[in-house]
Structure formats: C-alpha cells, structure tokens
Amino acid sequence: MKKSIYCLLLLLVFITSCNGQVKSEHKQTETKTLKIGMAASELDNQIWKIFQDTKGKYWFGSNGKGIYYLDGNKLKLFTTTDGLVSNTIRGIQEDSSGNIYIETPEGISKFDGKQFTTLKAIKSSHNQWKLNPTDLWFGYNANDLYRYDGDSLFELKLPRKDLKKAFGIETEGVPFKGLNNTPYAVFGINRDKAGNIWFGTATAGCFRYDGNSILWFGEKELSTLPDGRVPGVRSMIQDKNGYFWLSNFYSKYKINPALPNGYEKLKAVDLPIEITKDKILYFNSGIADEDGNLWMTTYGGGIWKYDGKTLTNLELKKGAEKVLLVSIYQDNNGTIWLGTDNDGVYKQNGDNFEKFELKNESSR
Questions:
Q1: Per-residue model confidence (pLDDT) at position 125
Q2: What number is the average pLDDT over the span 47-71?
C-alpha cells in the first residue's frame, strides 16, 4: 500500500521536554482566566488518552473536544474556554507534586488543581540533555522533543544520522499539525524498567537515552517500509526477559554494548497465519502488565497479548463495525483501559473488555 493510506496511523501516537538558563527565563508561562469546567454526562466517542492520577481520579483526553475529569461519579469537561491550550489531547502526565500536564498539538498545559498555565519552551544554544527520574518528556509541538524539569521546558534535538545509508532510501517526515515535518518527529516516548528514556520517530528509527549517551536503532523495519508504509515507532515496551519491542511484532531487541551497533536483534515471536492474515503488525500503544504479559493495540486489528510464548488477538466490535483502538493504559489497580477513535473507552473485565459507561449520577 502507499504511504498516504497509512497516514492516519501516524496520528495515533502515544504517544508520552533542556536546562542551564538564567532564573529569569524559568517562569515563562502564560496564565489564562479559568472557569472550572462544565458538568458532562458522557465521554466523547473519540478518547485517545487515559490517565489515572495519584489521587485516584481519571482523565480522558479526546481528539478535539477537550479533556474529561472523572472524580467518583462526577464527570467534568475542560476545554479552551477554561484555559486549556487546545482541545485536541495527545498526552497526559503528572509530576511529583500532583500537577497534571496535558500535551496537545498547540502546546502543553499545566493544571495545578485550580487553573491552567501554558508552558513556554526555552530556546537555547545549549542542548541540555539530562535524565532525572522526575523529568517529564514531550514530543508534540517541538522541533524534536521537550524535557521539563519542573521549572523549565527545554527543547532538545536528537542526533542526526545518515538515514539514506541506513535505510537505502530518502526518508521523509509526515506533515501533521503539532508534529515537526521531518523524519525525526517524535511519535512515542517511553521509560524502561531501568529509567532509560526511549524515543520513537516517524521514519528515523528509535533512540534510547541512558543519561550519558544516545543509542540509535537504525533498522529498516523502523522506518519507511518497502511497500511504502510509514507506521512510525509509537510505542516501546520491555518484556520480562529484558527485550524491547519497538512498535512491531517482527523483531525484539536487547542492549548489548559488546556488539558494534550496541544491541542484538532477534525474531520477536512466531506469527500464526490464522490470526495475522491481513493484519497490520505494528502496534500504536503497548504495556507490560504485573505478570509480565505484553498488551498491544492496533488501530483496526484489535488488541494483542503475548504471554512469553504465545501471541493472541482479540477484536472488539461496535455492532458490525470494528472498534478502532488508539491507546492502552493500566491504572493504579492494574486494570487495563483502551482508548478508541470511534467508541469511547473500554475497560478490562477478566479476560474481556467492555464498553465503559458512566453511572447516571455522573452528571450531577
């Protein structure tokens, strides 16, 4: 298929900011007048991001309608009217002080429980790479990416590589709002068990930063594919044996400094034709649960589970229509949630997933 057919998949990001400036630059934020949300009775059909904060409250980020906040049975909707920088939500995080950060194509909003402020990036000639456990990282609205240390939002640049030599073709970016139109546009950010940070890009492969150096995974399957597809690296997850799955089911990787490229690559899993036929074997979001099982979502191909031996697939239906999965999230209690592009939110119930419906009193 042609690259254009798969453009929609590139929007499904996970999804997931520099330092050393004078103090006068640290407080570059814009505060907007806020009225605290409005009561809502149901979630929008397009919920791309799900997050539970440390207080147990849930946040649901929509694709254009704002962000929903669920406190018990009470649902509120925050939008640009309330000071949110954009109604299109691409990421939700929390810092160590309980502030919520909402990533959008127009910038990053910080919510302190009372009001929204818009973070302003520091433009610096210094490429301030650091890796602190409390740092937050963002990919939208940046030239490459942002690192936020709780005080300043630093814009960082990934190291440039000879992509034509590595992949055999000229690589291109994807011109979507909020993403830099270069191969290095960051589509996904994940932190591994050791605290290292991973960046998946549009067509420049994948990068791992350990606080001292950046390791590049320059494999053809992580860039433009031979048939023209551009799936992007949108999710990086680590299995119980220490291997990393970089947004696809074909290969897995393990860090090995003894090798020339710094890692080893193996076949990820047997792909039984009865469940993989006509499926796009690139996932847009993934997690490892408490038992070490991998769970991964594909836009039109359902949810996948790998228990260390077997890969299984479960499709969700909305009547005769497929449920289009965008993201997967595990809450503080270990329950798995699914964000979709056409049917709201699904919640795990045993071995199945059920449509999440709010109780009647949620709008009161």
A1: 63
A2: 98
91-94 and 100-104: which strand pairing? antiparallel
pTM > 0.90: no
Q: Three-class SS of residue 119?
A: strand
Widest CA span of the chain, in angstroms? 61
Give the range among 172-181, 302-311, 340-349 with minimum mean pLDDT. Answer: 172-181
Residue 1 has pLDDT above 50, yes or no: no
Q: How far, in Å, CA of 40 to CA of 20, rounded?
A: 43
Amino acid identity of residue 278, one-letter, is D
Given phi > 0 = left and psi -120 to 50 = alpha, else beta, which region is 223? beta
Rounded (10°) CA dihedral 95, 98, 103, 106: -110
Tokens describing residue 196: 């290292």
CA distance 216 to 113: 39
Residues in contact with 236: Cβ distance below 8 Å, sequence separation at least 6, in sequence order: 188, 190, 192, 198, 200, 206, 244, 245, 246, 247, 286
Q: What is the pLDDT of residue 360?
A: 62
Q: Are 12 and 234 in contact (CB under 8 A)?
A: yes
